[in-house]
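FAQ: What does the model actually see?

It sees only this:
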Amino acid sequence: MAKSKEQKKQEASNREKLRNSITAAQRLDYLDIKLGKGLGAQKERAKLKKLVDSAAGMRDDIVQEILEESESGKKFKVKKGQDPLKEKKRMRREAKRDK
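And it is asked to produce this:
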């Protein structure tokens, strides 16, 4: 039996929600499972790999910055339940905006 237009829209919406809820690394793993290791979806794989690499690099930079600040005696305060990496990114954005 053919699917109605509404059913197709609903399924597409569900797939998009699922895709947006997982990380780039998880999406790469999913492509490997679905298509085979390194096979197909070359543009998508390149885009996801770039996202994973840039996120890892940015995270390392921020962690290093926090460590340097703590060693130099500066206090980097983070409220309870707050992610220090997200807070540091926010501070960077504000500093750029103020320039």
